[in-house]
Design goal:
Blueprint lengths: L1 E4 L7 H8 L3 H14 L3 E4 L8 H13 L6 E4 L3 H10 L5 E5 L3 H14 L2 E5 L10 H17 L7 E4 L11 H12 L8 E5 L10 H14 L4 E4 L4 H13 L9 H6 L3
Parallel strand pairs: 1-2, 1-8, 2-3, 3-4, 4-5, 5-6, 6-7, 7-8
Helix pairs in contact: 3-4, 4-5, 6-7, 8-9
Bound molecules: (6S)-5,6,7,8-tetrahydrofolate.
């Protein structure tokens, strides 16, 4: 599966501080550490409180690309900030994200087509997040249809069925698993699926345990990608073991080591 490193996000205090102080080294260290730990892509989010979100996005993208070749997921709901980030990407970017709201959806797909970006589609619209898996996939279908209309291939769409903190809404974890499973029949080739994994444990006491348990459950339903913490070794081990048991890698006794070496 695709590991999208989540650590360069203005939601985090250390990143907020680095942005304010234009501390490029701090951002570079976060990029390098995530790359070394096995991330295949890095999420870039300026955070909710940025004074100059466009300039900050450009600075983050440039800073990260000065130390790693990993592709970037530009994480913002603001399409102007989005385009500023996409424009700077040296490698195929990911647009994170659009909702199913029609006007926004079309503008986001135009951008994706222009920059040849893959796209995360959140299963929510002007009415909010549907309560069940069917409602989520109705929106997912609209997102895939909009993509195809603009010439964005269906397998470059990553549907995000929006996992929420389990201490706020405990039934959502099961609903999201069902949505991941169902999503595969929406198009041929099927869209991919992604989760913002850490959301599931926000505000709880056992965050790493909940994160890795849920990742394994979601992988068993066919999850393709997760925005997650690649520096959490137990989480990465759980992912590798789950993929082994799903027959995605060939078994050897030292499978953790072999996977990490790219074997
Ligand atoms: N879907 C998509 N994109 C997303 C999300 C999603 N991007 C943002 C987020 N959700 C995924 N990334 C994070 C990053 C951090 C945390 C959760 C998800 C997190 N942060 C600590 C907290 O809130 O407790 C910050 C505290 C600190 O300063 O350390 O948990 O769902 N497409």
């Amino acid at each position: 599966m695709l590991v999208i490193g989540e650590l360069i996000n203005g939601m985090y205090k250390n990143v907020r501080k680095a942005i304010k102080a234009k501390d490029a080294d701090a951002i570079k260290r976060l990029a390098e550490a995530q790359a070394k730990a096995g991330a295949g892509m890095l999420d870039v989010n300026v955070g909710p409180a940025s004074a100059d979100p466009k300039g900050t996005m450009e600075w983050l993208v440039d800073t990260i690309q000065s130390v790693t070749d990993l592709p970037l997921a530009i994480d913002t709901p603001n399409l102007e900030v989005m385009e500023a980030g996409l424009k700077r990407c040296k490698r195929k970017p990911m647009l994170n994200s659009t909702t199913g709201q029609q006007d926004k959806l079309e503008a986001a797909m135009d951008l994706a087509a222009k920059y040849k970006a893959s796209v995360i589609g959140l299963t929510m619209d002007e009415k909010g997040i549907p309560r069940d898996a069917d409602g989520r996939n109705e929106i997912a279908l609209r997102i895939v249809a909009a993509a195809m209309e603009k010439g964005v291939p269906s397998d470059e769409i990553y549907i995000d069925p929006l996992i929420l903190p389990c201490n706020v809404t405990q039934q959502t974890a099961g609903i999201v698993l069902e949505a991941i499973r169902q999503c595969k029949v929406l198009a041929d080739p099927p869209p991919k699926t992604v989760l913002g994994l850490s959301n599931v444990s926000q505000g709880t006491q056992e965050r790493p345990l909940l994160n890795r348990t849920y990742l394994v459950m979601a992988l068993a339903q066919g999850l393709d990608a997760a925005i997650m913490d690649p520096l959490d070794d137990a989480l990465m081990d759980a992912m590798i073991a789950a993929e082994l048991l799903l027959n995605k890698h060939i078994y050897c006794d030292s499978f953790l080591k072999a996977y990490r070496k790219g074997g």
